[in-house]
Amino acid sequence: MPDEQHNSRRRLLLQGVAASWLLSVTRVGAAASSHVVAVRVWPSSTYTRITLESSQPLKYKQFMLQDPQRVVVDIEDVQLNSVLKGLGEKINASDPYIQRLRVGQFNKSTVRLVVELKQTSAPHLFTLPPVAEFRHRLVVDLYPFKNSSGEQDDPLLALLEDYNRGDVARTLPPEKKKDGKAGHERPLVIMLDPGHGGEDPGAIGKYKTREKDVVLQIARRLQKLIKQQPNMTVYMTRNEDIFIPLKVRVAKARKLRADLFISIHADAFTNRAAHGSSVFALSTKGATSAAARFLAQTQNESDSIGGVSKSGDRYLDHTLFDLVQTATVTDSLKFGKEVLTRMGRVNHLHKHKVDQAGFAVLKAPDIPSILVETAFISNVNEERKLKTSHFQQQIAESILAGINAYFAEGGMLARR
């Protein structure tokens, strides 16, 4: 009997050791099994973004080499696969920042990326946790180097860099001075904001139409129409397939002293039967409908999907701006009503009044701001319409008609 007890204890001990060994092997395997599942490159005149999407968080080290200037990124606990091998082929000859990109297995557990640059650039790397359909991401942003005075030539780029460092509130450049009465002694300044962009596609229709594409096309048509007006100037928060954080869009509008701000979207809803055009203004006291609350939540997720290295609402101090913003929201509702009325002449209206919710992109405290949902891309019939040049032009013309009507009625502009 003692021998049997001894053997039994021995078997249990061996089983425990084996289980412990298997657990340690599993953990080591899990740590080493991180693999890259997708790579994407987003070149633009403003900055170029490289994204590596992986099954596990990626650990990395970066450094610079000279002659020629190169950004080197060593990614640990990763094996070279066909996805990573194809990264170099995604670099366009027209990319303003990247000359070429090479990737290889540096040692048995490290993959090395070498990005050869066309110009002196400031790399900014950060990781993002899983969100929406994306898994873990490593982001490499390449910005142009600052000029001899230490400032960025592109005001949006400067704001974007400041935002990624968490410095938008502290380093926002002085606003441009514009004297005189808007539309009479000086042009009326319109800021157009095509929603989403780059890594953030926005809503996607049944037939794979992407919101970010159609709203950029509509915004470009509206931009062209506004340029033909003798008393107006127009700016775009983005004019390329590029991701711009929501607060940077607001910051650019304020920096360029916009009189009106128009964010253009073509969103989706859980029910594909939902259809029609809508206009939204900011609410500081909660959404005016469940649909408005849902749409605001989806729009406000753009920063998480598009990817920024810092978060937080330090740019706007709502306690300081409450009084100004209350008046601005009132003006936004009047402006939105004029646009909604004109849109109702070219498309069914989802609602016959301007709805309200806490849209982050409408939070400029001193600029009347609206968000236009041109149509529901989740509705099959409206997805089809959104792809046509005829409907896009009709929407652009109706928004311009709303701008003119609001201005003709003596509508208030930005409050400085």
From TrEMBL:
EC number(s) per entry: 3.5.1.28
Reaction equations catalysed: Hydrolyzes the link between N-acetylmuramoyl residues and L-amino acid residues in certain cell-wall glycopeptides
GO biological process: cell wall organization; peptidoglycan catabolic process
GO cellular component: outer membrane-bounded periplasmic space
Gene Ontology MF term list: N-acetylmuramoyl-L-alanine amidase activity
SMART domains reported for this sequence: Ami_3 (SM00646)
Keywords: Cell wall biogenesis/degradation, Hydrolase, Periplasm, Signal
Major place of residence: periplasm
MurNAc-LAA domain: residues covered: 250-404
SUPFAM superfamilies in alphabetical order: Zn-dependent exopeptidases
Alphabetized InterPro entries for the sequence: AmiC, AMIN_dom, MurNAc-LAA_cat, N-acetylmuramoyl_amidase_3
Compartments, as annotated in UniProt: Periplasm
Family statement drawn from the similarity comment of this UniProt entry: Belongs to the N-acetylmuramoyl-L-alanine amidase 3 family.
Protein name per the record: N-acetylmuramoyl-L-alanine amidase AmiC
Lineage: Bacteria, Pseudomonadati, Pseudomonadota, Gammaproteobacteria, Enterobacterales
Recorded name of the encoding gene: amiC
